[in-house]
Amino acid sequence: MHPPAAISLLLLLTITTTTNGHNITRILQKNPEFSTFNHYLTLTHLAGEINRRQTITVCAVDNAAMSDLTAKGLSLETIKNVLSLHVFADYYGAKKLHEITKGSTSTATMYQATGEAPGTTGFVHITDAKGGKVRFTPEDNPSQTDVVFVKSVLEMPYNISVIQISQVLNSPEAMAPTSAPDLNLTSLLQREGCKSFYNLLTTSGAIGTFLSSVDGGVTVFCPSDDAVKEFTPKYKNLTAEGKTALLLYHGVPTYNSMGMLRSSNGLMNTLATEGANKYDFTVQNDGEDVKLKTKVVTAEISGTVVDDEPVAIYRIDKVLMPRELFKATVAAKKGDGKGDDAEAPGPDSSDDYGDDDAADQKANSGGKVVASAVMVLFVVVAFL
Ligand SMILES: *[C@@H]1O[C@H](CO)[C@@H](O)[C@H](O)[C@H]1NC(C)=O
Ligand SMILES: *[C@@H]1O[C@H](CO)[C@@H](O)[C@H](O)[C@H]1NC(C)=O
Ligand SMILES: *[C@@H]1O[C@H](CO)[C@@H](O)[C@H](O)[C@H]1NC(C)=O
Ligand SMILES: *[C@@H]1O[C@H](CO)[C@@H](O)[C@H](O)[C@H]1NC(C)=O
């Protein structure tokens, strides 16, 4: 193989490994008959949840069927429950639907996964009926017999199947009125364990930036009350701007579920980020644990306060110290604290973090570079 061919192969490999997620919005956009359904998947944030899943079946309904649903005057949260019943946690292509063993099966839906569905109400019965018809029946509404398979829209075995069904699945439980999720950051941040951090946000005025980020999605890493207490002397040493930057550093302007944090390691921009490579930190999972690494300190997520798209709040065990405000211990040792600017108090020598973490981080990224270089070499050699 010629070098250019090897290079384009490499490029192709890189592209395919970075774009393996699907995009339900884009898939449905090709079919204007599903535009209302598609619109509501976006409005209810279900689209994001669908894109994050592997092995999934989306049962779309056309605009006429959707207008029956929207005419009911349900709240957006209730519509979300109804539509989540249309997303199966398993892969059903046309072939599999017509080959259901014993003619009938029951499948769990995303409504089941929300934990909002009592008992088995989050399940849908699939029946391979006479005459090649496939019928879908909500578990809590056995009398609904008018929902049948219409056609396959897209099949990517066994990642995502999008099919059209004839009607909306009418589940009394999913359609029951629900209370809207609490998106009031002010009250959410006052929940246990985050009070001290919340007080800092209000006294500094940084809370405003957090509040105005809610609509577009926000993730807050709130240091525990103990962590804030321990950090107080250092906090007091910061200028007003330094304090605000430090607080904004604990917010990320996108929603991140725990699953997303566990699976997407890498740099994360924060509300304090202005321009490239400023006030960011690295997310790194260690099995189920998630660590946040700045060049100065490594904090660990110790609990979830809220995780309800578009808002996620996690408790962390240490205050995140950005390198822009605090010297990394390695650097501090070299410079011996000389030339510190006024708002950059170096970390105490008694700190049990910093040194090792900074070294770890270097070692890790070095390891990664070596590993990818080896991979590239391997691939090139294999194909030349
Ligand atoms: C999915 O596709 C839509 C429409 O093409 C686009 O606006 C959106 O940003 C995409 N979402 C992701 C997560 O790529
Ligand atoms: C399904 O997803 C996996 C992993 O993301 C990917 O390797 C595979 O190519 C996908 N299959 C199809 C048909 O796209
Ligand atoms: C949010 O919660 C706070 C504290 O509980 C309350 O004072 C405020 O009125 C609420 N804001 C909205 C918009 O409901
Ligand atoms: C506060 O700043 C001063 C001067 O920069 C420094 O000597 C002192 O160690 C700092 N105190 C703390 C707790 O960081």
Tags for this model:
FAS1 domain; single chain; 384 residues; disordered C terminus; 39% helix; membrane; four-stranded mixed sheet
Describe the structure.
InterPro entries: FAS1_dom_sf, FAS1_domain, Plant_FLA. It is found in: Cell membrane. May be a cell surface adhesion protein. Pfam families: Fasciclin. Belongs to the fasciclin-like AGP family. The chain is α+β, with helices and mostly antiparallel strands. The relative contact order is 0.09. Helix 11 packs across helix 14. It has a 7-stranded mixed beta sheet. The chain has 2 domains: 156 residues, FAS1 domain; 181 residues, Roll (FAS1 domain), CATH 2.30.180. Strand 12 and strand 13 form a beta hairpin. The N terminus and C terminus are likely disordered. One 2-acetamido-2-deoxy-beta-D-glucopyranose binds next to helix 2.
